[in-house]
């Protein structure tokens, strides 16, 4: 049973976490390069928010949005 858990340890420590260890060592050389993944996620989230807000404005301008407080049955 001990060999099974050591196998799991080897899998996670030496194989699956290798990219994260690389990013950790890269941070000492260049902070911007090490955080490119974070920058990519922030750009994707910002683009999604802009798209969502534009869609809300489009529905608002078309009069499709129901802003009545009794729009849902549980609010009556």
The outline comes out as elongated
Instruction: State the separation between the terminal residues, measured CA to CA.
Output: 60 Å
Question: In terms of structural class, how would the helical and strand content be classed?
Answer: mainly alpha
Number of strands: 0
Low-pLDDT regions: none
Mean pLDDT: 88
What fraction of residues sit in β-strands?
Answer: under 5%
Strand-and-helix sequence, N→C?
Answer: HHHH
Protein name: Uracil phosphoribosyltransferase
Transmembrane segments: 32-54
Keywords: Glycosyltransferase, Membrane, Transferase, Transmembrane, Transmembrane helix
Pfam families: DUF6341
Characterization of the model:
This protein has 76 residues and is mostly helical. It is 74% helix and 0% strand. The chain is built from 4 helices and no strands. The chain has helices at 2-16, 18-27, 31-34, 36-62. The N and C termini lie far apart (60 Å). The model has no long low-confidence stretch (mean pLDDT 88).
Structure characteristics:
elongated; 74% helix; transmembrane; transferase; 76 residues; mainly alpha; 4 helices
What's a concise summary of this model?
The protein is mainly α and 76 residues long.
SSE topology sketch:
Layout: H1 2-16, H2 18-27, H3 31-34, H4 36-62
Pfam family, one: DUF6341
Protein name: Uracil phosphoribosyltransferase
InterPro entries: DUF6341
């Amino acid at each position: 049973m001990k060999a099974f858990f050591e196998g799991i340890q080897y899998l996670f420590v030496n194989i699956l976490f290798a990219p994260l260890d690389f990013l950790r060592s890269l941070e000492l050389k260049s902070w911007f390069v090490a955080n490119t993944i974070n920058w990519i996620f922030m750009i994707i989230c910002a683009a999604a928010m802009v798209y969502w807000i534009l869609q809300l404005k489009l529905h608002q301008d078309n009069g499709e949005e129901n802003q009545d407080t009794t729009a849902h049955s549980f609010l009556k």
